[in-house]
Amino acid sequence: MSSPPKVLMVAEKPSIALSIASVLSRGQAHISKHLSQEARGCGYLVLWLDCDREGENICFEVIECTRFPVNEAKKRVYRARFSSVTEKDILKAMDNLVEPNRHEALAVDARQEIDLKNGYELQLEWKRQKLFDIDVAMMFQKLVTEDGILEVIVVSEKQETKGRPSGLNTVNLLKVASSALGYGPQTAMQLAERLYTQGFIREWKNLMAVNIGFEQLGFKAVNSLLILAIPFYPRTESTAYPSSFDFEGTLKVLENNPSWRDCVRRLLAEGYHKPRTGTDAGDHPPITPMRPATEDVLGNDSWRLYQYICQHFMGTVSPDCKYVRTKIEFSIGGEFFHCIGQRVTVQGFTYIMPWLAINEKNLPQFTKGEKIEVSRVELYEGETSPPDYLSESELISLMEKNGIGTDASIPVHINNICERNYVQVQAGRRLVPTTLGITLIRGYQCIDPDLCLPDIRSFIEHQITLVAKGQANHSRVVQHVLQQFMQKFCYFLQQIENMDALFEAQFSPLADSGRNLSRCGKCLRYMKYISAQPQRMFCGTCEEVYYLPQKGTIKLYKELTCPLDNFELLIFSLPGPEGKSFPLCPYCYNSPPFEGIDTLFGSAKIGSTGKLGKGAGMPCFLCPHPTCRHSVVAQGVCACPECSGTLVLDPVSAPKWRLYCNKCNCLVLLPEGAHRIATTRDRCAECDSTIIEVDFNKKTTPLEDGATLHTGCILCDELLHSLVECRVHIRYLYRIVGAANSIGLFRLK
């Protein structure tokens, strides 16, 4: 009796091959990886490839690989047509085998040949990546275009590996649940706990109460001790499995689930791999499936989470993903370009976790020294964009990195900021801060920036870890942390007016009634001027409040900007004909960039306590910046005769020009009616005062021959000396005379 014919079955995908083998041979045959070896001695070839043109084209490649005689192919090579891998469809396809369709295969060959001969469009990456000068970029584009020929200078291939995942801990489960499944951390924890209590994931024990007699513990008393054994919750920081973990047993449990039965059988047949070495936190093993389940049993939400847990576990015991990375480097016109291709050789764990698969990109075959004609050279213009809002998954990663919260408290923290309306969860599980949340953080930053930084919480978690290891004293750690927070709390109470002012500026109707006045130096958007007491500037974009001098008028100063911070300058004017006017920068006035600047003109007083609000009060006439045209260095003229201050030129006092003291109420009236009075960089040789330049009105000029321009020192120049007068505290008037002993009073410091 002759032996039955040997038939070689070829399928395009391993999952299809396993299904066909399990149905037709009842698990007693496996698909070989080497077609040429398996084809030896086979009388027939059945092709189970995708039923499309590409699949038909692959059929004839397989026929060529297996070396079946061409003249006998019609009798010994068959094609299976199927639409699914169910047992019914597989048996139906086996009963209705047909010949491979040569015409469909030739159609694929024709398209490939046409595409190849018409040119393969390949986009290359420039070694310089990007330039921010359009003229320079266009110059390089011209060089490349004029050359027009690419030369291949390097062809390199490298075997790369994408490692399989380690065990699943709680934090990683929460991140995947948010980013991939669309579940918030709180919802994900509730679903996971439900799976735990139902016994579908990890170890689970029923609630037990056991009475143990004290006699068993060595005591004579007859009382008993009640011990409660409660279920484990899905909270673990470990990603390392214990050495005694039964991986094969867990896989066999999952084999009962039809959703991934084929994958499990493949792992068991080819041999599973031990998971990567993870972190053993000493609490519980990684989250692992323990019982098979279906969507009908669990419901949609629980099933999706359970499905991921199962896929992750199977991924941890699957092979690594391996691929070949090809890099081709080109030169043209003195510039260098490259392109990178990736070709997967071993799917590994990405077969069961396809969302982590390598994006394949096949490149044409190139050889070193080959020259290729360039079809076009394009210059792309773009612009940078701000980062997107944090997603829940990204926030969890940052909390884990900075030691904020634990696997149990992280979902609670995120849920709290959502419920308190500090953030709103929008599309893609992005956390968008609300006005309330932003204002709260800005308030903390104004008073104590440490309160909104992760450093304090990270330090506390570190100290708690030291206590757990026995390296720190429990009581000292608690006492130190509580003392630190008490100090911060007391300081916060002292500065609470700043928080009140920020909330008032943001949420009160005053913020809506304020008018746009000057640009913020940080965001370059207009800030609102709130004239109600205390008058202040408010930037709605930066959520910042900038206090101003009180009891005067505020105007924009010629759209000039501060050279230190780019804020637009303002002019503050006291009421009355002889009230001072001086420029100021809102930012410098509130946050002086120089040490030792005294507070002037009283920062805003808020509330009944009379405490000073934010603002150190540094106008431009106190600024010692050497190059700023508005500083005391540039506008200061001489020393004040009444105090230790400096007489500064009032830049907006025309036509009634004057000098004012930057510390007291001393005023010096300059020649009235002059077209222009300005300071110069020259100094008086006798008293070291600043030389000023006066452009007199031609109708009232005191100069001979009708001249109008005159420069000199107001102390030493006889003409200017006779035209100025000083008013101190607006009480009395006297004319400055040239007494030699009075010169020292006006000397600049």
From TrEMBL:
Q: Which family does it belong to?
A: Belongs to the type IA topoisomerase family.
Might you report a single GO cellular component term?
nucleus
Which keywords appear in this protein's UniProt record, sorted alphabetically?
DNA-binding, Isomerase, Topoisomerase
Instruction: Give the Toprim domain ranges.
Output: 6-83
Functionally, this protein is described as follows: Introduces a single-strand break via transesterification at a target site in duplex DNA. Releases the supercoiling and torsional tension of DNA introduced during the DNA replication and transcription by transiently cleaving and rejoining one strand of the DNA duplex. The scissile phosphodiester is attacked by the catalytic tyrosine of the enzyme, resulting in the formation of a DNA-(5'-phosphotyrosyl)-enzyme intermediate and the expulsion of a 3'-OH DNA strand.
Write down the species: Gossypium barbadense (Sea Island cotton)
List, in alphabetical order, the GO biological process terms annotated in this UniProt record: DNA recombination; DNA repair; DNA topological change
Stated name of the protein: DNA topoisomerase
State a single Pfam family of this protein: Topoisom_bac
Q: What is its EC number?
A: 5.6.2.1
Q: Listed GO molecular functions?
A: DNA binding; DNA topoisomerase type I (single strand cut, ATP-independent) activity
| Annotated catalysed reactions | ATP-independent breakage of single-stranded DNA, followed by passage and rejoining
PROSITE patterns, from UniProt? TOPO_IA_2 (PS52039), TOPRIM (PS50880)
SUPFAM superfamilies from the UniProt entry? Prokaryotic type I DNA topoisomerase (SSF56712)
Where do the Topo IA-type catalytic domain residues begin and end?
69-489
